[in-house]
Amino acid sequence: MIYKSAIKKLICTVLIFGISVNMNVFASEKVQLEELQAAINAMDLKKAEELIMTDNSDIIENTVDVDVTVDENNILTETSTLLVGASDGGRYDWLFNEDMKTLNDDYLAIIDDVYDIPIFRCGLPGNATERLKFPEDRTADTYLEDINLEMYRPDVNYSSAPHGTGSGTEGKGAAAFLQALKVNPDCKFFVIVDIECSRPEDTANVVRFCRDPNGSSEWAKLRASWGIENPINLIGIEMGNEKYFFSTPTPELAKSATDWYIETFKKHYEAVKAVDPNIELLPTINSNSTRGGFYEWNRPVLAALYEYVNIISFHLYYSGYELAYTYQWIQDTLDLIEEVSGGKKIKFAFTEHGTWETRTYTKRQGLQGILPTAQFYNRMIKKDYMHSTNAFCYTHTGWAFVRKQDDGTLQPTGMNYMHAVYEKNLGDRVYDTLVESDSPLTDEMSTAQRFTVLATAKGDNQLKIFICNREPYTDFNVNFKFNNNYTLVEETVFTAPNIYSLVYSENTKDVFTTTVTPKNEPNFSSYKMPSKSLVVLTLETKSKLPRLGEAADSEEVTYDGEKKFIDLEGYWAENEIYNLSDAGIVNGVSADAFSPDTKVTRGDFALLLYRTIKKDKKVSNFEILDVGFDSPYYEAVNYLVNMGVIRLDNNKFNLNAPISVIDAASMIYRADKTADKKAIDMSQRYDASDLTDWQKDVLNYQINGGVLRYFYETKVLEPSKLLTRGEAASIIFRVFNNIEKY
Q1: pLDDT of 386-409, one tens digit each?
Q2: Of the options 3.30.420, 1.10.10, 2.60.40, 3.40.50, the CATH number for the domain spanning 4-67+459-540
Q3: Residue 380, class by beta-carbon neighbours within 10 Å (0-12 exposed, 13-18 middle, 19+ buried)?
Q4: CB 189 within 8 A of CB 196
Q5: Is the pTM value of this prediction over 0.85?
Q6: Burial class (CB within 10 angstroms; exposed 0-12, middle 13-18, buried 19+) of 677
């Protein structure tokens, strides 16, 4: 955790260590930026292009040695390209023809240069239902009396400022979907609905528009009339964009407005879930914990809505605010969620993020603004609370992926090309990395950090190492340590001539370069990291890189002894069962039969677990109503009750009932003596519909540890599935194989 007092101290680190670079370089750099800004302000195209293309790559004032250890056995989280999405940014009239139903030809011409947007966020300002209609079909602005805003906000005269359709050029309804779907037909979406202008039924209509099967309803037909024939892959709906009511004139009004938001959110939730229970609703969260209103808004909203919410909308701007500050804001939010929910795991959707600096696109679109975003990805993609990110914004502004430049041409920007590097290379799981150096430039606890590393696996044998170096005149000698032996097979370098370089005109459209170079360097262990660059190193190994749930059981289970059970020949857990049989843990039903497909009882599973983990400990003899003192199961059940592994129900164990996956996993979870059992959210691997939060924690932990490997490898795990003797043995074997934990 980064503490606020420490951050203040670390600001000094930036100033102190900044002098390691020649101050004459900084002076000339400042002049270059001032000249560039002056040329742009004066519309001096030639001078601006000259400064943008000035190559400072050969100026190296400092070299830092750094050690990077990659632990391929420690998987931090699963990941996907949902973490490098885009956000619709507002005015984009130039994207569309006048009828708003088709895309501009100039834009269509550059589609191939736009990276495959995996997730897109678009807004429906005003009334959501009206925004989905064509402009000529929209009704006039109307005051929505039944939303009852004036009851909660008497400080605002809503009747004099009608809240209905909305006005202006921002947000062209369904047209917002067109641009992303043209780039990537498989794109997923978040949609913002204005909670102050839309009824619950309006929000439900958004879901109908997106999800109704082709031709099945008027909403599906309306979608097709926009040129969107197939259902839209909608993930969730944000209930308002940065709708924080804590800034109202008095505490009483603030509370009243917050109460209105909470109750209205619940009504929209019910309406949406009635149409499609898979759609998430996201409350808007105040992200800056050093700014007024963080606790005044977030605490009541999260306390009231955490049961309804699996994802929150979180906006994060950095560089200007250094990245180290923003990590503290996130931690403060995580702590608040823990406080009000008792530990529910809620994911963060960073539906807006980007460099702030000043509100000038030269800083945001220059390399100096793009590399902090890469640093953000390298830091944040490894966090298990990340659901997705949408860089703000897709068009028009200083953050744009596509921009109408000052010479009138439509061009993809450096931000677009940087995202393409991640989209093309990002793996499906993240490994732990340790960066060690004497320099604060590599210290993630320092506001001076400019060097970051991310290690992801792609497939079974390929490692993708992302390295970001924001320093303009410092390179790094990187020494790697791995668990496996690797060959460097490809190097990808994204950079520009200087940190102020940006796409400004037709002549500067290629100022950003992404150079992909095939390599063949066996026994790879070191790399010279260039200045002002994002690099991806593609490494290959002959070893199989572990996946989640395989770390505890990556080796094939073998057995060389006598195989006596006829019905186990070719059975998937054959070797596990024979190993347990030799250890005296499992027995056959006869001398030559095991009966692996017979259901196992709670009593039999308790007996297997007891034989596996029992230790010579003195225990009390409890009276267990359905397990007599003379029962062959009593010793095992009584021991496990003493150890807290078994919880009795009215002093009964229900000995002869079959046992489910979740019940067996829960017993093993309680038996596990690991102090910190926090685990990555694995809910995509199991059916969580009828589980408590504690049971979800159990499955997350057991899947991460490989205990339930068989049950999710080729299918979604069913927690209520009743175990067979063979399945129970496979679970017990993984306990047996990691007995030091029990």
Answers
A1: 999 999 878 766 788 988 887 888
A2: 2.60.40
A3: buried
A4: no
A5: no
A6: middle
